[in-house]
Amino acid sequence: MNLRDQFFKKPWLFKLILNHWGPFKGAGIRVVEVTPDFGHVVVELRETRRNRNAFGTHFGGSLYAMCDPFYALMFVARLGKDYVIWDKAATIHFERPGKGTVRATFSLSPEDDATVRQQTADGARYTPTYVVEVTDARGERVALVEKVLYFRRREAIAQKAHETEPPRMTGTGRPDA
């Protein structure tokens, strides 16, 4: 099993790698919890002088970064290699200044997995929106992040590519039958 496969199978490795990944480490972002089924991930951002903005509160880019990859990564771990999963769009709504340690909790259910499987079973694209709150130590919402994900079965993409592939030319200059 290669490192990529292990990353999506072993929560402790997922946590370890992300906690040492340059963009997260530099911003002060830490993954603090990952359940064995990758259905629940908790991420924290501690306020430091390196991630404060000009007003002395959390830099908005760091608040977004702490939420950026998790829903997509969680679904990759849960659904496996049969699916193409991308972040398609995102919106962040800042609701109050973030001070101290802030937290984002990401949760997926077996029903979320089943919905993706059902919506993509015929090869269709599926682009649902998932929402996560960033809260402060008092539990008050600092920001709300909406993530639009893209899902499609890999075999549907391969089939479409095969159907639209132009005919290959043979050495005779005629299309290959």
Automatic annotation (TrEMBL):
Gene3D superfamilies in the record:
Hotdog Thioesterase (3.10.129.10)
Which species is listed as the source?
Answer: Fontimonas thermophila
Q: What is this protein called?
A: Acyl-coenzyme A thioesterase PaaI, contains HGG motif
Q: Which domain of life is it from?
A: Bacteria
- Which InterPro entries does this chain map to? DUF4442, HotDog_dom_sf
